[in-house]
Amino acid sequence: MPPNTPSKRTILLIEDDVFVKDLYERTLKRRGYRVIVAEDGEMGLEAAHARADEIELVLLDIMLPKVNGIEVLKKLVEDGLTKKFTVVLITNLGQESIIKEAFDIGARGYMLKARLLPREIVDKVDEFFQTGVFPVSEANGL
C-alpha cells in the first residue's frame, strides 16, 4: 500500500457522546483509518501524550466532561504536541467567538456535527490527508 493510504493513518477521536463516538469510529475504521478513542478531555490528553508519535489527526469535541475541548487544545499547544499532529474541532457549538478562539489557539479546522453526515466528515478527513489542509466549507466553519 502507498504511504498515504488510510490504513497508515492514526486518528485520535475525543468525543463523549457514545452514539456519535461509535458512529464516527466505525465510519473511520471502515475507510481504513486506525482510531484511538477517548471519552473525555482528560482521557484525550492522556492518549495524545502517550501516542503522540503515531497520531496524525485529532478530532476534538468542544463540550467534554472533566476537561473541555478548548482546554484540551490549549494544553496540546502548550505541550508542543500540535507540532506533531493537526487538531480539528467536531462540535455542535456554532458560536463564532468559540470558533475564533479555537483557531487563535491552534485548531486547523472546524466541523459542525449536525450539518455533516459521518461519511462527509470522513470525506473531509480523506481530503486533509491528501492535501495537508483541512477543507473549509459553509458547513464546517469560518
Protein topology:
Elements: E1 10-14, H1 18-30, E2 34-38, H2 41-50, E3 57-60, H3 69-78, E4 86-91, H4 96-105, E5 109-112, H5 118-131
Parallel strand pairs: 1-2, 1-3, 3-4, 4-5
What features would you describe in this structure?
The chain is an alpha/beta fold and 142 residues long. It has one domain: Rossmann fold. Helix content is 40%, strand content 17%. It has five helices and five strands, in the order E-H-E-H-E-H-E-H-E-H. It has a five-stranded parallel sheet, with helices on both faces. Helix 1 (18-30) links the parallel strand 1 and strand 2. The longest helix has 14 residues, at 118-131. Mean pLDDT is 88; it is low at 138-142.
> What is the CATH first-level class name?
Alpha Beta
Number of helical segments? 5
- Spans of at least 5 consecutive residues whose pLDDT stays below 50 are 138-142
Task: Quote the beta fraction.
Answer: 15-25%
Name the CATH superfamily classification.
Response regulator
What can be said about the biggest beta sheet?
5 strands, parallel
> How many β-strand runs?
5
